[in-house]
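Q: Can I see a sequence and its folded structure?
A: Here is a first one.
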Amino acid sequence: MNQAVHNKRLRLKRVGIDTYRENVVFMNRNCCVYRAAGFQAMSKVKITADGRTILAVLNVVLNDLMVAPEELGLSEQAFQQLGLPEGTRVCVDHPEPPVSMDAVRKKIGGDILGQEDFYCITRDIVQNRYSRMEMAAFLVACVETGLERSEVLVYTKAMAATGQRLDWKKPLVADKHCIGGIPGNRTSMVVVPIVAACGIPIPKTSSRAITSPAGTADTMEVLAEVNLSPEKLRRIVQKEKGCLAWGGTSRLAPVDDVLITVERPLGIDAPGQMVASILSKKLAAGSTHLLLDIPLGPTAKVRKRDYAHQLRKIFEYVGDRIGIHLEAVITDGSEPIGRGIGPVLEARDVMSVLRNKKDAPVDLREKSIDLAGRIVEFDPAVRGGRGRTLAEEILTSGKALAKMEAIIDAQGRKPQIPPVGSMVYSVCAESEGTVASIDNYRINRIARLAGAPLDKGAGIYLHKKVGDRVERGQELYRLYSEFEADFNFAKAYIKRYSNGYQIEADA
């Protein structure tokens, strides 16, 4: 760029567009800087002013009312990240291309990457040097060529190094994680208050849902604030021993949250990426002990026992080398856990279990007690086999409910729980018989098409589970949506493909 154009500063304008975790700038096509510098739409640009610099993706606009030729518009994230007031004069220039793209190209070619490669890639991503297209190329390369376990180890460390790292200065800081894929499997929201009520610290941070209708953070957000600063998270755990927060605002392995925004639309949840994603968050959160739930079933993420054992070995290999005592349990993933699928419906299930209601889902209650019992036994003072009894006593006595209410208040109780979606569709049995199986993948897909997890009240409520007897025309489940387009997408999927249920006729 010639010096005259370089010295031409544009006036900063806040455009007010949410580009969700991607810095975007808007420049008028008739802008003298755009014409002279040879910028191209969707390329990266560097914005500097008053000693501050950000990188962003360029969008070119034709409307002078949106961004005038002498202005530079910034999306919400970019504006907040630059941290300068509107009207500030800024310079726009070509950035240096990220050096780590050489490593990405090596991975595309099937090479094994080393520690410095992963550290450079994750650092460039968190500094907004990658476009979504470049991040997608990296993720797909990791899926297609695979990650050796040595790569997963250094990738995990590199991801954790991109943000803050908590240190609780305690010998036992517990955590629990499920690899997902099972609708309604919201055990963490029961396990955390049980374990915290035992006095064991359990700072549970979760990502948003990637391929499911809800994650723990999505569901907890129905009840309480989950966007906690590291300082607030620390205060809550010190007082209540537990929390249920989103890892994004806590700046724990933030590169993971950026990558998830690309993984979600691509439906990517590959083993190596999954291990690095989960364990980097646990390492950053200061966990010393982790219980990992690997559901196994014909329509779960993990469908073969050999693969479950292989996955467990990778987790244990990485966990051991980053200083986390990790125990992985293979659980029943043959059907959904609980009855609600989607944030509001799952939150209702969780609270019914904590309140010891007679109609609470038995499978959610029993699995939560099992998992909590195993975590309680991380405490050397608890005899082996005694943990489950203690966990059940805490739940039955109401101590777990009291702890959950205290955690909700500490995080910031929501004034009211959102209602379920106003548009309702009943899915009924087409024949009489017994429910032989429920397809987890199909049920997840239908609930997501209905609007979950973005629409908190969208989802599915199951009236029949495996082994239940049904009559022809009897309701299997009820679909909830808030918007007509989502409602129609979900219904069309059911009619075109499957309702997710297999009914076996009586012999």
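Q: Show me another, different protein.
A: A second, unrelated one:
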Amino acid sequence: MKQKLLLIVTISLFTTFNSFAQSLSNIAGQVSDNNGKAIVAATVMLQSAKDSSLVKTAVTDSKGNYEIIQVKPGRYFVTTTVAGMQKSGSATFELKENENATAPVLIPQPAVKSLEGVTVTSAKPIVEVKADKTILNVEGTINAVGNDALELLRKAPGVMVDKDDNLSLAGKNGVQVYIDGKPSPLSGADLAAYLKSLQSSQIEAVEIITNPSAKYEAAGNAGIINIKLKKNKTFGTNGSVNTGYNI
């Protein structure tokens, strides 16, 4: 009887996991200029066709290609931002279950320059690619409202969050989470709970470091996710003490 019950539970768990895995698909695409030349390090944003909400970000490689993996079926469109060029967007396309999709090629146009009545404004891009890290800027972007830290990480390039809220970076598990450059003492369910309690309005940026430098403590080869908070730091040691006296 026990063996039969164990078999039923095992089959049920396998079916649930298998259906979860099969319900996600991948999206590939490319960003190039008018001459068909690849644009490197362009920020690509996958957005829902329903409400234009940001689903995931990506960065193009040396060939102008990008890939966004494990996306739920639905209707989407992609946009790209490149320094010195106008923002470019694609038509909507459908991602079906168990079928990978190729997004329309994005071809951003050079920014129009005007000599009269010029107003110079500057804003941080949503994604910055540097030599040692990739930065997802939160403050002042569409990520700044209505999300917690875990949801932000779902949108960050190269970061994956599984159904149990475990983090992986570039396909590697065992990612070390830092808060303002200091390693978090939390892990597993406790870390996930903390990230869910941390609102995006409290976060300035998320740094994704695939090859940590010597200034970070050894934390395996999975990489580091450093969450930079705003001036009102909320991370610390919190706890409660309950006492009682019984006779």
